[in-house]
Inverse folding.
């Protein structure tokens, strides 16, 4: 286990793509220690404060972070709904973050704007954790997913992973693919309606990283070859009700007890939750269904993350090159409203905030 | 003081009818000890987490639980308004509870749906406390009421209790009657407008339990015979403004200093609060008015309750008999939306969730 | 450093005008000690509870109090949005406060009603801190402002203070003038559009206290003589868009890097935040801009305040002279809705709650 070469490299957690496999192994080892002796960590974050900024309502992720911080003996402040704040007064994200970071030891934030956590990190003295920035990234969900796979199977690599549901808009799916690309011998089966298949840039990513994948038209077709099945929610609103018989379509992407009968005995079924009807309730009683364990393990890996980040010395984060860069064409990009942000372009010409 | 015969019997607190007088005496003794030496309990729940799920807004009950948990050195997470959550995404109550219970040591919940706390308890690894399920039950208010009577009078039995106000819809009143039925020699005077008198099933309950009660048309008529007067709020919306002169009606059910002059010197006036106009503000300065003490004692008995429940070993609660039973006709019953719930019918044919 | 002559005099903090310079010096000394050795205060409020009642949404002040209380090892409960409470049920402020004070060790509250914190203090067993009552007072912002001036300059007196922006409605500006009047040799330059100049009663206050002030038409005119520049936000809604070219007007009251070039090298720029466009972002990188330090110092002086107030023995606060006094003509005064409040008239005939 080696330390990151650049000590500031992992100050924040914005994108799982930024971290190394070594970083993950270290974090997972810490998580296992917490699971083994939780009482020994009861005061591990005593005196530390987490700022919990949920610009978009969330139950699961927010609860998970709150419980994690409190179980470490730390505490938190923040908001769970932007309506409870004075942000409507027109304050910039940069100012909100400067203020919040001066009161706290770590910031966790969820936004509807893509790239907002990265933008925030430029103005924060303390680590910023991205708890979901629109449809873009959700790295702590990915930590949760990897932790569950590692706990259940003993290791992460060498698996065939079925991704089922909304692969087009599902940020958890994109983050997971990016993360699993770091592990050996992972192949994917993409199980989705045509209209919600994996976007081209993700397919390009898999090809560029020599990751094997196939496409399937239904769960039924793919179930027998899977080691891990990652289910996601399909929203009726994604379809024009006149063109598509949604309920008929869903039968191909709904996990039932009958389909489970044809799955491997060692299958692991995951779901980021909340679940609606895409997993039949009868499956809950199958020992291979691990989505509730997954939710619980999410709290423990977040404990490991908070333990690490809240103890960092404060940084100095004051960008000196403010000013609009090339305008990003994505209307959900953070640069659409926060026009002062320092220009960031990637070498391939995509926006350095939202990756579009 | 004997332990309950079934150790799992009192795992949750859903309905005061489920608990024994012995259970109450034990809890009250604990409360008295906390009142006597609060500093000794400052770390009694250290490391414990309460999930506080208020699906319906509340100030008093929520504050009371929060303050209770924090004064024991525990902590809490949750929401005070369902708008702050992602529940709108269509997650079932069962899934929300499975997730929440995996993060917490006890759950307290308030809902508009009747029977929701019982339903939740079927899916929780940790104790569930019912902090009000619609117009159905509110057992910790009953604990508060009994605690105040016991503190002020030394004992709970042997009293004439006036119940005044909205006896039809008032869940606190129904819970209190059910609870006082467990104590010796309690009689009731039911003081309410005809349209808001005690519902027939509560009258039947009193008759079946050989509890003496009379009906009165005004506070004035009944005041001189009362040992305890339990006031409740009457909502103008309950009446059709064309048919009823609400203000004239209210004079019969409003407690004033003039009426207090004719009351016993040992009267105890209670009110679950919030109070609007049904108790004249001048009564506040009468030493027999104990409703603010009642609010305070509510925090202490909740401390005793949390102390007991948060230390229980986790349970295993996974119903294996899911599936709709006979449809309950009560539109506010939890079974109206949570259709997967295991069937529960009482021997008298009423719904096992909402008692309707 | 002498104790206040009346031990109850400073039980609450409603109006900075109520406290002595000695009280301030004592508090500031405590703040400096906390800044020097924060770890020694980690358990200073252990077991203490702050009730945080934000009847009006706020981010900065609320976060600041929350972080302050948690950094002292205390904890808090409350609401950040009245929609999350049952206050809509028609409960009086007096009853809400009686209940809340019985659960807590100190109350901090923000309201839209003027005089509400004073009204609340009449019904509270524990200290009440005014965190802003409408356009009236905001004493902890004033503590923040004084602390920053004292930290940056070493002392508070002997300065020329420019007040720029909305001097008519800005409660922070009024509180600051009232506070600085207690210190020697402070003079003011009032820099505001005519429509938003300092109200006559504040001008009268300055004249009565022999405080020197001048009026300026733009920042440009005044900048070179200032030791402290206190910027505030001007709201577009204050102007009729047909009559006034708001953007043109704003150029006179916007701080830019060009204007900063002509300022003293020892200038201190303050702003209560949130800031919109009245300070150009380029000024943020000037070392004389201290508004983000100011926000951080606000947390520390609030720690000193909470440390002091949460340890007071409980008071007895039950007004016996309830009943409407002369009706106050200010529709935003707390007496407009809380009609039972004890009459309070000042010797000059103004309302004892809202000062109007």
């Amino acid at each position: 286990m080696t330390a990151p070469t650049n000590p500031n490299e992992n100050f924040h957690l914005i994108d799982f793509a930024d971290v190394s496999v070594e970083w993950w192994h270290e974090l997972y080892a810490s998580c296992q220690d917490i699971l083994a002796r939780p009482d020994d960590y009861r005061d591990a974050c005593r005196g530390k404060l987490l700022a919990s900024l949920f610009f978009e309502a969330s139950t699961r992720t927010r609860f998970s972070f709150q419980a994690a911080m409190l179980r470490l003996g730390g505490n938190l402040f923040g908001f769970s709904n932007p309506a409870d704040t004075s942000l409507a007064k027109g304050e910039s994200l940069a100012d909100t973050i400067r203020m919040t970071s001066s009161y706290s030891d770590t910031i966790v934030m969820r936004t509807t704007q893509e790239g907002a956590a990265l933008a925030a990190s430029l103005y924060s003295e303390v680590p910023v954790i991205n708890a979901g920035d629109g449809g873009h990234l959700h790295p702590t969900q990915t930590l949760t997913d990897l932790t569950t796979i590692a706990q259940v199977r003993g290791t992460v690599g060498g698996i065939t992973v079925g991704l089922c549901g909304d692969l087009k808009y599902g940020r958890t799916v994109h983050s997971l693919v990016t993360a699993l690309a770091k592990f050996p011998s992972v192949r994917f089966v993409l199980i989705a309606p045509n209209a919600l298949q994996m976007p081209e840039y993700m397919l390009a990513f898999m090809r560029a990283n020599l990751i094997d994948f196939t496409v399937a038209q239904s769960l039924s077709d793919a179930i027998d070859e899977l080691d891990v099945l990652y289910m996601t929610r399909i929203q009726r609103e994604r379809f024009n009700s006149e063109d598509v018989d949604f309920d008929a379509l869903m039968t191909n992407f709904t996990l039932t007890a009958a389909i489970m009968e044809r799955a491997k005995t060692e299958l692991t079924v995951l779901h980021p939750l909340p679940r609606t009807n895409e997993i039949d309730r009868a499956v809950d009683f199958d020992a291979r269904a691990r989505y509730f364990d997954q939710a619980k393990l999410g709290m423990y890996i977040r404990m490991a993350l908070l333990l690490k980040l809240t103890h960092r010395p404060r940084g100095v984060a004051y960008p000196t090159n403010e000013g609009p860069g090339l305008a990003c064409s994505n209307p959900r990009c953070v640069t659409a409203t926060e026009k002062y942000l320092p220009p960031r372009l990637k070498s391939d010409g995509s926006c350095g905030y939202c990756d579009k």
Notes: Chain B has eleven helices and nine strands.
